[in-house]
Amino acid sequence: MNLFIILTISVFLAALYPDVAKRSNEAQYLADIEIEKLKTGAAIRGMFLNNSDEQVRFVYRLSMHKKGEAGRSSSNQGGFFIAEPGEKVSLSQISITLKDGDTYSINLKIFYGQELVAEKFIRSSFDISLNEM
């Protein structure tokens, strides 16, 4: 239900601001995923950088899938946001518990209406020895 509302809002915004969809998105809009390794897992933050010279209104979807000895888990978050010119926006945060050998994938997508304007994808394995420095 929430995803339907988010997509409806993004379609409305695309109709309201049609010029934004015509811009070159590669350098203007950057999606990023910041991962802070913790003792028992990680804190994952979805980030967006507006390199354009205009305020933008977009919708994001941040999803995380984890697989390990203890089983599988996933988290999906999304919402509407506004970014001023040159602004870096923290969209949301997911905290996960990880054990040695767990694998995870994280995908952040930024939409203007139905158009994907930025995306970042990470797939990795957790190595506990990297956290014992």
Describe this structure in words.
The protein is of the alpha+beta class. Helices cover 17% and strands 58% of the residues. A 4-stranded antiparallel β-sheet has the order 4-3-6-7, covered by helices on one side. Strands 1-2-5 form a 3-stranded antiparallel β-sheet. A hairpin with a 2-residue loop joins strand 6 and strand 7. The longest helix has 15 residues. The N and C termini lie far apart (44 Å).
Layout of SSEs?
Blueprint (H helix, E strand, L loop, with lengths): L1 H15 L1 H4 L3 H4 E10 L2 E10 L5 E13 L2 E13 L4 E10 L5 E10 L2 E11 L8
Antiparallel strand pairs: 1-2, 2-5, 3-4, 3-6, 6-7
Structure at a glance:
By secondary structure, the chain is an alpha+beta fold. 17% of the residues lie in helices and 58% in strands. The chain is built from three helices and seven strands, in the order αααβββββββ.
List keywords for this structure.
3-stranded antiparallel β-sheet; 17% helix; 7 strands; 4-stranded antiparallel β-sheet; alpha+beta; 133 residues
Would you tell me the overall average pLDDT? 82
**Numbering strands along the chain, what is their spatial order in the largest sheet?**
4-3-6-7
Low-confidence spans: pLDDT under 50, at least 5 residues? none
Determine the N-to-C terminus distance.
44 Å
Radius of gyration from the CA trace?
16 Å
- The level of helicity is 10-25%
Number of separate helices:
3
Instruction: Please report the total strand number as a whole number.
Output: 7
Described by strand count, sense and barrel closure, the largest sheet is: 4 strands, antiparallel
Shape: elongated
Query: SSE order, as H and E?
Result: HHHEEEEEEE
Report strand %: over 45%
Give the class from helix and strand content and strand pairing.
alpha+beta
